[in-house]
Amino acid sequence: MKNNILFLLFILMLIGFSISVNAQDLLDKLEKEYPDNTEYEIATFKGTRISLGHSIENRRKGVLEVKAMNLFWNIPNRPSQSFVADKWTARIALEYGLSNRLTFGAGGTTLEGIFDGFLKYNLIRQVKKGKGSPFSVTLFQNASYRSNDGGIGLSDDFIDRTAFTSQVLIARKFTSQFSLQLSPTYIHRSSSFDEDPNNHFALGIGARYKVGGHISIVSEYYYLANPLKSIDTYDAFVLGVNWEMSDLMLQFQMTNARNMVEDAFITQTPNNFNLSDGNFVFGFNATYVLHFNQKKL
Amino acid sequence: MNRIIILLSLLINFTDSDNRSDQVITRQGQVSFFSYTSVENIEAKNNQVLSIIDFSRSEIAISMLMNAFVFKKSLMHEHFNESYIESDLYPKATFQGSIIDFDPLAEGIQTKMVKGTLTIRDIAKEVEIKTSIENIDGTYLITGDFEVVVKDFEIKIPPILAPNIAKNISIKFRFEYQPYEK
Questions:
Q1: A69-114 tens-digit pLDDT
Q2: In a 3-state reduction of DSSP, which class is residue B151?
Q3: Which of residues 173-192 of A touch B (CB under 8 A)?
Q4: Distance (Å) from the C-alpha of residue B111 to the closest C-alpha of chain A?
Q5: Which of A39, A57, A158, B48 could form a disulfide with A129 if both were Cys (CB 3.0 to 4.6 A apart)?
Q6: Is 50 exceeded by the pLDDT of residue A20?
Q7: What ipTM is given for this predicted complex?
Q8: How many domains does chain A have?
């Protein structure tokens, strides 16, 4: 009799066990059904520029970015009555996603009358889940033309007024907040005074820290290994805030750079970063995104 | 003798419940959501939703990756994942619940309530959803729609963008189940 009761208990336990086994989450079962797809990291940086310099990001195919980049600064020791700031320069640009990985852009800058065009190709994407690269790599190549006189060793020759920047942008999104980018840079300037190099090597380092869903703090620094000798130049530094609101992105900057084209601000920033008049430059970029290639759902 | 019979029947029961295909699954379930405001209409669709039904207990589970939602505008996909859902931190949305008074053998369309827990961004909410279940020779089609309140899942929307995103998001789903095989 006692045995029977024990046995019944045992059976009850078994039944209980079997129910708990069956009741093991259906969700766990689904968990195993997920295909082993490689997942790529998105939004290492919010914009195609960290702040001033290019980030590894491209826009998707059929996306047009309309960009207005502005820099403002004062001229030192001048009894100035200028509105807001003594000097203002703007770069107006259009950048279009030819494919999901390739972007073409062109722009014009008011200071020195620089026209520039670039191609940017996303070579390697950082993998979030699965096998693959731990970082993203984007190749960047631009060409610029100075239409105004007064640059470093400029002549009237068209080729003399050009400069070319090549960059290998390498970035990793470490956490959902923090991303870091290294940008080895090669710049060729077609014309120079004799004592100046034509070819420059630089290393950019940039980072972003996301402080909220829509706001991140960014910083960039460009170390120039062989600067110009005919004039004193300093390495470009940027500290900024990026704020994105649906189709519009605003990037605010405190910097010492006075130009937005790579060869100009990396090799020819004439002042160091501090808060004095003439050295302190305030900037903002407004980028509006248009989608010409909307997906059908 | 009795014990042996009980044991045997138990064993049979066990093996039976293991092999019987009383579970159906879909790996290409569709979930779409809509946010209609006067400023902007936002629409997205996920075609890779997983769902499983266990008929023996009338239980249903749904799981999906948030980054599998496709938007008309590519930038919206990025913003959805990066700024709103934070799919880095909360990659999945899940539902687990039961179908009330469900008869898997009945042919044709039945309208039943599904009651359970919806989890988005690790925040669980009890929901009750009216669904239509159609049984066509052992394949089941479940469709329905419901609304979620954005606020319930602590999705942060900056005040300046509040007019662009509806307070209530309507969600539609369509799952076509096949017998589950291991």
A1: 999 999 888 887 888 888 999 999 999 999 999 999 999 999 989 9
A2: helix
A3: 176
A4: 23
A5: A39
A6: no
A7: 0.82
A8: 2
Helix, strand, coil % over all residues of chain B, rounded to 5: 25, 50, 25
Residue range(s) defining the domain that contains residue A10: 2-31
User: Could you tell me if A14 and A137 lie in one domain?
Assistant: no
List the one residue out of B70, B74, B61, B121 whose CA is nearest residue B93: B121
The pair of structure tokens assigned to A83 is 């509105």
The model carries a pTM of: 0.84
* Main-chain phi, psi angles of B15, to 5 degrees: -60, -40
Band the pLDDT of B136: cuts 50, 70, 90: confident
Are the Cβ atoms of B40 and A289 closer than 8 angstroms?
A: no
Collapsing DSSP to helix, strand or coil, B27 comes out as: strand
Structure confidence by residue, pLDDT tens digits, B143-160: 999 999 999 999 989 888
Residues 87-116 of B with CB under 8 A from A: 88-89, 94, 96
**CATH number of the domain within which B148 lies:** 2.40.128.110
For residue A115, what are the β-bridge partners?
A: A108, A145
**CB-CB under 8 Å, A22 with B54:** yes
